[in-house]
Write a structure and sequence with these properties.
Helix 9 (about 230-235) crosses helix 10. This protein starts with a strand and ends in a 6-residue tail after the last helix. The longest helix has 19 residues, at about 255-275. A seven-stranded mixed sheet has the order 5-2-1-6-7-11-10, with helices on both faces. Strands 3-4 form a two-stranded antiparallel ribbon. The protein has helices at about 15-30, 85-95, 105-115, 130-135, 160-175, 175-185, 200-205, 210-220, 230-235, 240-250, 255-275, 280-285, 290-300, 305-315, and strands at about 5-10, 35-45, 50, 55, 60, 70-75, 100-105, 120, 140, 145-150, 155. The protein has about 325 residues and is α/β, with parallel strands linked by helices.
Length: about 325
């Protein structure tokens, strides 16, 4: 098996977890199957770079002397806001030579600035999707998934999603067993599907300002199998259904129905990932009532039915 060179681009203001997360995944795979990955880091001048968190990283060398990479990984961070033109020039000239081009978080902004995402579907950190779309209209920006693959170009969302993407690439290269072994070692347990939304329901929605609405949000999360109709939730908040629905939308940025849908999907997903409960039991516990209702929700949101989701994303128990 040919060894794959993973070259990580470093620059001042880089987000350290964008670097170390994927590097630990590839390093773990190399430890599991020696001779599979050779990891190198490089900056423009070969000198140390200061991360956005204040730590210093010392690269292996300069980008000009770096080997041709099988996987060229471009992290994000504050340094992507005003990128060094020399860096985008280097990417424009050298990135097409890589067999696989990968960005983490706002590293996608660097790729777009170098013209490497034109005509492609891509994602980045949720807070920068609008900027990416506005500044680079030739890029098809998808703000939802945690990572996107378009040909040999792979872009991921904020920070920790780089770990998910790296695990997916290791699975492509070395198989599911190796990827799961690495995931367990990192206490990740499993690889989230690329089309999983960047936000959980609780993060995607704003926290309501008024205490009765905040209490309703907590109640929904803690009781996904309860009656979560607008009428029932309005009664809990001591508001009329019409007033409740309007206030909930104004204060959280989403409707009660959509919030409930997200919470139930997340609850079902966690049960499928972490327990051996049957699909029928999971559907009842998550408020779907029937396996068919849960199947429709999974296919719509994740593109895969519950049984297949469990097969792909729940670790095989170790003996």
């Amino acid at each position: 098996m040919a060894q794959r060179t993973v070259l990580v681009v470093l620059f001042d203001g880089v987000q350290i977890l964008d670097v170390t997360g994927p590097v630990e995944v590839f390093a773990g795979a190399e430890q599991h199957t020696p001779g599979t990955y050779r990891i190198r880091t490089a900056s423009l001048d070969g000198g140390p770079v200061r991360t956005s968190g204040g730590l210093t990283l010392v690269p292996d060398g300069t980008l000009g002397e770096a080997p041709v990479a099988h996987t060229l990984l471009v992290p994000g961070g504050q340094g992507t806001r005003r990128p060094d033109p020399r860096l985008t020039d280097w990417l424009r000239a050298h990135a097409p030579r890589a067999e696989r081009l990968v960005s983490v978080c706002t590293g996608a902004i660097l790729l777009a600035a170098a013209g490497l995402l034109d005509g492609r579907r891509a994602t980045t950190h949720w807070g920068y999707c609008d900027k990416l779309a506005r500044d680079h209209p030739a890029v098809e920006v998808d703000p939802d998934p945690i990572f996107v693959r378009d040909g040999n170009v792979h872009t991921s969302a904020g920070v920790t999603s780089g770990i998910d993407l790296a695990l997916a690439l290791v699975e492509d290269d070395l198989g599911r067993d190796t990827a799961l072994t690495v995931a367990r070692h990192l206490v990740v347990f499993l690889r989230r599907p690329g089309n999983q939304a960047q936000f959980s329901a609780q993060l995607a929605a704003q926290t309501a300002h008024r205490e009765p609405l905040r209490d309703v949000q907590r109640w929904i999360t803690e009781h996904p199998a309860a009656d979560l109709s607008v009428e029932s939730l309005a009664a809990r908040a001591r508001l009329s259904p019409r007033h409740f629905a309007r206030a909930f939308r104004d204060e959280t940025g989403t409707t009660p129905g959509r919030y409930v849908d997200r919470v139930r999907l997340e609850h079902a997903r966690r049960l499928l990932e972490d327990t051996g409960d049957g699909v029928e039991e999971v559907s009842r516990a998550s408020g779907y009532g029937t396996p068919e209702a849960m199947r429709r929700a999974f296919v719509k949101a994740l593109g895969t039915p519950p049984a297949e989701y469990r097969r792909r994303f729940r670790p095989t128990p170790t003996r």
